[in-house]
Fold this protein.
Amino acid sequence: MATRHPLTMTTLNPNIKKMAYAVRGPVVTRACEIEDELRKGLKKPFDAVVKADIGDAHAMGQTPITFIRQVLALVNYPPLLNEPLFPADAKQRARAILGACKAGSVGAYTESAGIELIRRHVADYIERRDGIPSDWRNIVLTTGGSEAIRSVLRLLLSGAGDDPVGVMVPVPMFPLYSVTLTEYGMHRVDYYPDEDNDWALDVSELERAAREARKICALRAIVVINPGNPTGQVLTRGNIEEIIRFAHREKLFVLADEVYQQNVYGDGVPFVSFKKALSGMPCRDDVQIASFMSCSKGYAGECGARGGYVELINVSSEVMAEYLKSVVVNMCPAVSGQACLEAIVNPPAAGEPSFESYREEKARVLASLELKARMVTDALSSVEGFSCNSIRGAMYAFPRLRLPPKAAEAAAERGLEPDTFYAFRLLEETGLCVVPGNNFGQKPGTYHFRMTILPSPGDLHAMLRRLASFHAEFMRTYS
Amino acid sequence: MATRHPLTMTTLNPNIKKMAYAVRGPVVTRACEIEDELRKGLKKPFDAVVKADIGDAHAMGQTPITFIRQVLALVNYPPLLNEPLFPADAKQRARAILGACKAGSVGAYTESAGIELIRRHVADYIERRDGIPSDWRNIVLTTGGSEAIRSVLRLLLSGAGDDPVGVMVPVPMFPLYSVTLTEYGMHRVDYYPDEDNDWALDVSELERAAREARKICALRAIVVINPGNPTGQVLTRGNIEEIIRFAHREKLFVLADEVYQQNVYGDGVPFVSFKKALSGMPCRDDVQIASFMSCSKGYAGECGARGGYVELINVSSEVMAEYLKSVVVNMCPAVSGQACLEAIVNPPAAGEPSFESYREEKARVLASLELKARMVTDALSSVEGFSCNSIRGAMYAFPRLRLPPKAAEAAAERGLEPDTFYAFRLLEETGLCVVPGNNFGQKPGTYHFRMTILPSPGDLHAMLRRLASFHAEFMRTYS
């Protein structure tokens, strides 16, 4: 085959070959196979696989917010505007969206940056969030948060023959960053948030990473994920200010991944956006930030809609024009995602007919996530051999495992990382699917896994018990 | 500003600076300004701008197919499944889609390659179209056809330090190709379909282009757009076979842009897919093809849904696995686009309740496009100084203009290409917005413009009359 075809494993884009996409890695693949085996009647020590591997709220049973879905149904099928089935506020939003679409159809292309009305409402949402102005012309709607992140990283690429551009990324990190840097041929510069200090960012560690990176690449940007994925931390305003001062000194573009801004739990640290922190600092005009948001997280959890936005701060109008030019290649963001975003940033207001039910549904989702964040934190902290920071935000736990040398040897015999070996054993013996820490990156010699807090409290309870007894047995076997 | 910011016009990705996106170029920008001026009450020699610049059917008043929108409303808001408002077949499709979504919600991520059920139905559609087998595992659903095209071109990129990869593209072409090749740093290898022979592809011209390209790049692929955009041709099976033999000899990957496969008019040349043509040839196992399709064109015209697919032919399972890995970066295609595609490839069948109305709506759209294709062909052919091939497919006319030297001089004084100057004058004097031929590429020394056939017959009629009298006046001025 190889010789007669132009596209083979030999000629394939080498950067694609290097890409490893960790969120859907081999453990998840095996989990899907086990689900098939269960369907075929194979006997297992469990009845069902519990997928705690991905932040996919609806897949884990979270119900959609009614108002959002009403708006989506109405814009897709406008004859429903005449039906008494739907409340007036959902109809109002749908009419406004349709009025902003060409010839009143969501089937028309929108502007490449998204519908102006929705960009304006995103700016209003940001102003309410931060208490400072937001200019809708700096906001670009995208087909999901991932596309937004990739489109901004693309702006930073260097030309052929120039030094490779370096981007600082937290380790552990959401794997989209590592895989995109690999695809783009950018230099990945790891920095390590301090696990022993609730994953805070220590400026001396940022400086170490930057110093080493400058020897081998043109360092240009830093990614910060807040609230943290997979780490679940929420950065304090003081810590954010330190990071901004560091970025200012080092002249780095800041990619602020703030897609979990609505997922903050307890009465601990509140979410503060990088933009808001910057606004109070002397360097307020000098640091460039891209802040990312998504429909997939928060209380909506609408992953399938593929809605997201980026707000660019302190980027010149000339560069903004180039950015807008570059996003035209996708024609326009999916209109479903844009409409979903509109329903999120412009929800029912007090006095509107859906207000009470919307508020109640939203509160129920957030209360459930908060309860589960506490359940998981408590359960994992009480297992001997685990340590786990409190889950203050996002939707994941990232506990650290202290694995005995024999477990590492058993893993090595199978050609696996110790925590991958652990995750495979956990899956085979309990049906619980988590993602090994090495898929997100971790400090050398440390082992972790990421699990979501999304299963129902009942499932989560059973799962955490199975995990504790599996762990005890695993430690007995390999001690 | 420049010195204190990391992202400036100086540091911006140079390939993005080089990108020029032609479908939405300066003439379209000016058309939008004129619309604003009209709204503000400025006097113009016309009442409204007619946008004949982009293949955006709904924007030009084409109504959506009811069945498609019913399915979309139902999947977004499943309580509607209990309402008598909707026919049983739309409900059946919606239930099937929801049944294939995790936990029955379109808000969950789907597989990165799209929902298996829909991939299977796409394969069924292709089998019905071609009469030969299609394997659903070779089909990947995408967020629109553009994403599909870009994701396949990405597979062909070479590594740093290797020879740049060359891709043959027709001139004129859909500008997505030129802009993506620029962004990816690939080498664009122009070939010229024969305007004097209904835009047929002459193999000696392909060979010329390939021979010249091989001196300066690693030639790896050829793009063919059939039915043609902007040229409106439909290639004969014999011509397609010649192109395939050429690709085989030269070992080129074939990107078959077949998004207009449902837009073929008259009783002239029928649409034959590259896959079908290949299936009858001795090299049937040796030529690799990617065939692209979209929800945005055809009779659906659902541009905003962002649905599309690619079928890969003769690509090894190893390379397919790499491709699937590479598309994970976008998490999953927009589910609205996937559901829209399902309604297109699995429409109401004879005996189902929506069958008659669906067939009638589809026939009405296609008959209207056919009528308008003929109207435009006839009108443009009768203007002195224009020549225009028959519009046999797609939704565009691409007439050739014979412009006098004085017009070229007047254009040069303004720093414009002659056909850009013409398009600007046409816009300012008649309100008719078309895209200059140079945005698509054209043989040196020839001038064209692209106009869509999408305005209503009434608008089109008025528009073609205004165009004819504008042209006569323009020729008088510059002769």
